[in-house]
Amino acid sequence: MQPLARRQFLGRSATGFLGAASAWVMPWAVAANAATGMCDESIDPGKADLIYRSRAPRNGEPPLDKLVESWITPTPQFYIRSHGPNPQISDDFRVSIEGLVERPQEFTVQQLLEKFPASSCTCTVGCAGLRRYEFNKMKKVGGVQWEEGPIGNAVWSGIRLSDVLKHVGLKAGAKHVWFDGADAVPEGDHTIPFGGSVPLSKMQDEDKKMPGVLLATHINGQPLPPDHGFPIRTVVPGYIGARSVKWLQKIVVSEASSPNHYVADAYKMVQTGAAIEWDEAPPIYRYIVNAALCSAEHKDGEIHLKGFALPSGYKDCSITRVEISTDSGKSWSNATLGKEAANFCWQLWTATVTITNPESDICVRATDSLGNLMPETVPWNPKGYLYNAWHRVSAKSI
Ligand SMILES: Nc1nc2c(c(=O)[nH]1)N[C@H]1C(S)=C(S)[C@@H](COP(=O)(O)O)O[C@H]1N2
Ligand SMILES: [Mo]
């Protein structure tokens, strides 16, 4: 898809998005109950096809065969991962920029869109908990029991964080950028906003086509639905979904990464879970190479397989090979890669196989251009992040 031209962008938005101030909450039903702070369990009819792992908060992934129908994930099929209720967005919603900046400021979303050049990118957003249920087979792990579905590839539109940073001016010592959502996530006896963080150097990934960080107002050409962060969120190409903060309300430039729970404590890779390990481990930023078998169709004695493969989240890193084994990993043959591929995007693949031994497993593994190959097994970790062992499905089950 072409980047949205500025006029087109505004023109489209004028239909209820950038119109009267009251239009901010108009297009969508209000999804949180302000009086109780409880989640509204009712589901956006546009997202009815997801498989909900929990309804309050809303956590849903698409059925796998639907997931790989197209390279661009239609918004109804895009997974939802929320830690708390959707916040209520008032008419005077503003995004603030503070910390190590020359001119701290507050903007309405309309001001951001008018002041800064429109930017658009296609990239994959996937949850660090993708395939978590596999860890649970080894040893119990908490958290949403995601299968292969909390991942999607969309066209995101908005403005670049780098343009906003240039406008407010960075002060000496600036090294990280924090993002706080407007949500109130229950944490013990109080609530906290969901927060993310990126090193300032992420902006060096930028080129004409790809922002380091996008402040996105639109997904697939439409205003973000409430479940995806209306009216504005970050989208961080190459990073785990947790860094793409929905309902973005506050941006802070700092010398260190965010102290928010979801950066400082959660979303880290540890082995035993001892306190010292949490303190020592860096936040997870980039996603890692992964792949899954998503659909199987029997036809004339053959089986047509379809799935996705995700290169690790580095610029110019692509999928070089997807391999399929029908004998539990003894021998492998190459799958056919889909034509559509781009920086920070997944790639779809197909393969046609026959099963000689119904007791065997079908296995899938991907290699990326940095030489990362999905391993046969991965060690368990207490939060169940970044499972990327071979995807193994018993031949009998398909
Ligand atoms: N404010 C806020 N932003 C958030 C979250 C959240 O709970 N609150 N969840 C994060 C996680 S863990 C993921 S994987 C992505 C999911 O984005 P989506 O729900 O639009 O698919 O949003 C991220 N941003
Ligand atoms: Mo996530």
Question: Keyphrases for this structure?
Answer:
398 residues; mainly beta; 5-stranded mixed beta sheet; 5-stranded antiparallel beta sheet; 7 helices; 31% strand; binds the ligand Nc1nc2c(c(=O)[nH]1)N[C@H]1C(S)=C(S)[C@@H](COP(=O)(O)O)O[C@H]1N2; binds molybdenum atom
Walk me through this protein's architecture:
With 398 residues, this protein is mostly beta strands. 11% of the residues lie in helices and 31% in strands. It has helices at 6-13, 64-67, 109-115, 132-138, 161-168, 261-264, 275-280; strands at 51-55, 58-61, 80-81, 95-99, 105-107, 118-126, 151-160, 176-181, 185-187, 190-192, 195-199, 214-219, 222-223, 233-235, 248-254, 290-299, 302-310, 319-325, 333-334, 336-337, 347-353, 361-368, 391-394. It has a five-stranded mixed sheet. A hairpin with a 2-residue loop joins β12 (214-219) and β13 (222-223). The longest helix has 8 residues, at 6-13. The chain is globular. The site of molybdenum atom has 6 residues, from loops.
Please outline the helices and strands.
Elements: H1 6-13, E1 51-55, E2 58-61, H2 64-67, E3 80-81, E4 95-99, E5 105-107, H3 109-115, E6 118-126, H4 132-138, E7 151-160, H5 161-168, E8 176-181, E9 185-187, E10 190-192, E11 195-199, E12 214-219, E13 222-223, E14 233-235, E15 248-254, H6 261-264, H7 275-280, E16 290-299, E17 302-310, E18 319-325, E19 333-334, E20 336-337, E21 347-353, E22 361-368, E23 391-394
Parallel strand pairs: 4-15
Antiparallel strand pairs: 1-2, 2-3, 4-5, 6-7, 7-12, 8-11, 8-15, 9-10, 12-13, 12-14, 16-17, 17-21, 18-19, 18-22, 20-21, 22-23
The structure holds ligand MTE and molybdenum atom (MO).
The site of molybdenum atom has 6 residues, from loops.
